[in-house]
Amino acid sequence: xxxxxxxxxxxxxxxQLTCRLFPEKQLILRTDGRLSQLRLTTATQVIIASILxxxxxxxxxxxxxxxxxxxxxxxxxxxxxxxxxxxxxxLNEVADYQKKFNDMSGDLEDYHEMMQGLxxxxxxxxENLSNVAQQLRxxxxxxxxxxxxxENLKRQLLELEQDVEGLSTHNFxxxxxxxxxxxxxxxxVAERNKALFEGGRMRRQIKDLEGRLVQLEVSQxxxxxxxxxxxxxxxxxxxxxxxxxxxxxxxxxxxxxGLTVQQGGPFFDVVPEEADRAINGTLRASxxxxxxxxxxxxxxxxxxxxxxxxxxxxxxxxxxSFGKRRDPFNRRWAMHYGLDxxxxxxxxxxxxxxxxxxxxxxxxxxxxxxxxxxxxGVKTRYGHLHKILVKKGDKIKFRQKIGILGSSGxxxxxHLHYEVLFAGRPRDPMKFIKAGQYVFQx
Length: 442
Description:
- It is a single chain.
- The chain has a domain at 317-441: Glucose Permease (Domain IIA) (Distorted Sandwich), CATH 2.70.70.10.
- It contains six helices and 14 strands.
- Strands 3, 6, 7, 8, 9, 10, 11, 12, 13 and 14 form a ten-stranded antiparallel sheet that branches. A two-stranded antiparallel ribbon has the order 1-2.
- β1 and β2 (34-40) form a beta hairpin.
- By secondary structure, the protein is α+β, with helices and mostly antiparallel strands.
- It is flat.
């Protein structure tokens, strides 16, 4: 027989037993001549029987619990009574111990008073003993002082006797010293007269030196003035060169100031306060002005070394200028941000200023391109090259060969597309070339 069949037969037997114990019943109720029927099914009877069974079990459990709880409470009451009895006996023992402690405290107080009396007697005896010892020490010290004073008087008497004997010999020595002092006084007077003469001669020399110092100051003022004029002229020339490129001098100096610290000027050592007051205020002002002009000149010289003031090719002709033009491919008007320079195929291309290569390779319509950062916000680009001779990160010098002329990229023939940028904006390269011609011709 399978387990499933056994389970089904067991369920059938339970259901049959339930139906026999709780058969379905019908109750007929009559109210005011009306009949009503109440049907009690087997399931309803089972539920009612279960409820009654639960209520009976709960009542039985409550009764048993109440009986057990009363038994526990009576046991606890007995334990509490025993504890109270033990507490009373403990209190009696504590009272006995308290009485014994009070008796012992009284005895200790008597002993303490007796010990205090003995200590006071001992203290008085010690004080008397110390007073006697102190008087004895004072007597001994007084005796020693008397002995020392007597010995001192004897020594002084002996010294007086020796001094009296030495006075007679010292009298003769004083006579000899007096003659030597007279001779020394004469020599001192002679030296004083000589010093007065030398002092007059030195005062005359100081006046001569003061006159020479004034002449030297005037000559220094003239030299500083000439140097200032020459420096200002050089600054004007350098600023004119920068203006020929189309760049703003102040913007260029500000862009370069973050890279180098421009300092210079003549050296003047720190002089003491008295000598400093002797220097003419006009000379100091002139030196300050000269120092400022020299700093400006040094800044401009540094900047000019970074400007691309030469042509990237030795032999060329301009095929397209900077600015608006017609595109060579679609013939539409467009902006040309560089200078197209034609020349013989494979001509050398040179860097127009020292700098660092920031790009070397193919770049869209530029073809083979080299980009150089010269500092102070200035960059140059060389496009349509046939071959590149440098790589990114190379430090190149002025007029260093960086490529060969070609026609790579968007180009109609062999030529160089040359660009100059300042602060990221394109500039006319021809202005830089003309500014360089002005410099080299001058």
